[in-house]
Specification:
Elements (H helix, E strand, L loop, with lengths): L10 E4 L7 H4 L6 E5 L3 H4 L2 H9 L4 E4 L8 H14 L3 E6 L1 H13 L7 H5 L11 E5 L11 E6 L4 E6 L7 E4 L9 H19 L7 H23 L5 H14 L13 H13 L3 H15 L5 H12 L6 H18 L16 H10 L13 H10 L2
Parallel strand pairs: 1-8, 2-3, 2-4, 4-5, 5-8
Antiparallel strand pairs: 6-7
The structure holds 5,6-dihydroxy-NADP and zinc ion.
The site of 5,6-dihydroxy-NADP has 34 residues, from α2, α5, β6 and α7.
C-alpha cells in the first residue's frame, strides 16, 4: 500500500426528511446565499423546503448555474456574494451546482483574475466562504469531496481544481430528492459513480485488499441497482438510497487512499464535454472501454481480478477473460441506455485531432497511473472509440 493522508471533514446528514436539519446545520447567525441550477429545485419543491428550514436567517437565491457550470456565471454569483455580504453559501442541486459553489466560495476571497484558480488547479486557494449542500442528483461525489470542475465558455476549456478549503461543511443526502430525476440523469449517475470507482481501482496491485473490496462492493452495488432504477414503475427508496451512498463513497477519498489512481478517462472526457457538450458520464462511457483495451497490458492483473470478482469471469485464457471483462463493462453502460461510441453521438474521426490538441493545450500529456498516456496514446484510444 502507498503512504497516504485521509481526512474528510464533511458532515453527512442522510435519509428521508433531512432537509429540515438545515435549521441546525447552518450557523444560526449566517447570512445565506442559496445557489441553484435551472428550474428543477423550484419545480420539485426542494427550494421551498430549504427556505423554510432556514427559518429567520437572512437569505437570498442565485439561480442559473448550468450543467457543466461556467466560469462566467460563477463570477456573477461571486459579485452577488461580495455585494450582498453573504457569509454562508448553500448549494441545492447536482454536481454542477455544488462544483460551482466550491469555486465561488474560493473566488470571493481571490484577488486578481479568478481563472488563475483553475490554471493552478486550486493550489492557490488560501481560503473560502463556508458552504453546505443539499444533493439532488447522485453521481459526482462532489457532496463529500473537495474537487470541482469549471468550464470557461469563452476559452472552451473545462478544468478541475481541488483544495483543502473546498470541502462542504455538510451535505444533506435525502434519497427521495432523486425521485424527480429523468431516466437519463439516473443512468448518468450510475455510470459516473462506476467510472470514479474504476479510476481508483483498475490500475496495478499494491496489496490494498480493503480498498479493492470496497471498490468491488461499490461496483457490484451499481451493477445490481442500476438497471432496476430504469425499469421500476415507481421509485424504490432503498434503491435510490443505495445509489446515493454508492456514488458518495465512490469519490470521497476512501477507496482512493493508498492506491494508484488513473483519471485519464475523465481528462479525455472533459475535453469531449467542452468541445461537444456531451454529458459528463456519457463521455466516460465512450472513453473507458477503449482505454481499458489500450491499457490491457499494464492493467492486466487488476483487469483479471475485476473480471473474476465483479463479473464472475473465471474461464478462458487471461486475454479472453480481459476481453470479456471489458465487453461486460461496455454492455452494462449500453444497458443503462448510454451509447459507448463516438458515432452514437454523431461524432466521427474528424474531431479526434481537436480533442488531442486540447489535451496538449491543457498539459494532459502524461495521463494515467503510469503517466504513459501521451497524446499519441489518447489518439489511439479515441480512434478505438469511433
Ligand atoms: O439545472 P437544473 O434545473 O437543476 O437541472 C439539473 C440539470 O439539468 C437536473 N437535476 C438535478 N437534480 C434534479 C434534476 N432534475 C430533476 N430532479 C432533480 N432532483 O439534472 C441536470 C444535470 O445536473 P448536473 O448537476 O449537471 O449533473 P451532475 O451531478 O452529473 O454533475 C455534472 C458535473 O459535475 C462534474 C462534471 O464534470 C459536470 O460538470 N464532476 C464533478 C466531480 C467532483 N466535483 O468531484 C467529479 C465528476 O467526475 C465530474 O467531473
Ligand atoms: Zn466523473
Amino acid at each position: 500500500m502507498l503512504n497516504f493522508d485521509f481526512h474528510n471533514p464533511t458532515h453527512i446528514a442522510f435519509g428521508k426528511g433531512r432537509v429540515a436539519d438545515l435549521a441546525k446545520l447552518v450557523p444560526a447567525e449566517a447570512k445565506v446565499l442559496i445557489l441553484v441550477g435551472g428550474a428543477s429545485a423550484e419545480k420539485t419543491g426542494t427550494l421551498a423546503e430549504v427556505r423554510t428550514a432556514l427559518g429567520g436567517r437572512t437569505h437570498a437565491t442565485f439561480s442559473g448555474i448550468e450543467p457543466n457550470p461556467s466560469f462566467e456565471t460563477s463570477m456573477k454569483a461571486v459579485e452577488q456574494v461580495r455585494s450582498g455580504g453573504f457569509d454562508f453559501l448553500l448549494a441545492v442541486g447536482g454536481g454542477s451546482v455544488i462544483d460551482a459553489v466550491k469555486f465561488i466560495a474560493a473566488a470571493v476571497h481571490f484577488e486578481g483574475d479568478a481563472w488563475a484558480i483553475l490554471e493552478k488547479r486550486g493550489r492557490n486557494i488560501a481560503r473560502a466562504v463556508p458552504f453546505g449542500a443539499v444533493l439532488t442528483l447522485p453521481a459526482t461525489g462532489s457532496e463529500m469531496n473537495n474537487g470541482g470542475v469549471i468550464t470557461h465558455r469563452g476559452k472552451g476549456a473545462k478544468l478541475a481544481f481541488s483544495s483543502v478549503h473546498t470541502y462542504p461543511k455538510f451535505s444533506v443526502l435525502d434519497p427521495t430528492k432523486t425521485y424527480t430525476l429523468p431516466p437519463q440523469q439516473l443512468a448518468n449517475g450510475v455510470v459516473d459513480a462506476f467510472v470514479h470507482t474504476v479510476e481508483q481501482y483498475l490500475t496495478y496491485p499494491v496489496n490494498a485488499p480493503v480498498q479493492d473490496r470496497f471498490a468491488e462492493g461499490i461496483l457490484q452495488t451499481l451493477i445490481e441497482v442500476g438497471p432496476r432504477l430504469l425499469t421500476a414503475p415507481e421509485p424504490v427508496y432503498d434503491d435510490r438510497a443505495n445509489l446515493m451512498w454508492a456514488a458518495t463513497m465512490a469519490l470521497n477519498g476512501l477507496i482512493g487512499a493508498g492506491v494508484p489512481q488513473d483519471w485519464a478517462t475523465h481528462m479525455i472526457g472533459h475535453e469531449l464535454t467542452a468541445l461537444h457538450g456531451i454529458d459528463h458520464a456519457r463521455t466516460l462511457a465512450i472513453v473507458l472501454p477503449a482505454l481499458l483495451n489500450e491499457r490491457r497490458g499494464p492493467k492486466r492483473e487488476k483487469l483479471l481480478q475485476y473480471g473474476e470478482r465483479v463479473w464472475g469471469i473465471t474461464t478462458g485464457t487471461d486475454d479472453e477473460r480481459i476481453t470479456a471483462a471489458i465487453e461486460r463493462t461496455r454492455d452494462f453502460f449500453e444497458r443503462m441506455g448510454i451509447p459507448t461510441r463516438l458515432s452514437g453521438y454523431g461524432l466521427g474521426a474528424d474531431t479526434i485531432g481537436t480533442v488531442v490538441a486540447q489535451l496538449e493545450a491543457h498539459g494532459m500529456v502524461q495521463l494515467g497511473e503510469q503517466r504513459e498516456i501521451t497524446p499519441a496514446v489518447s489518439r489511439r484510444i479515441l480512434e478505438a472509440a469511433l
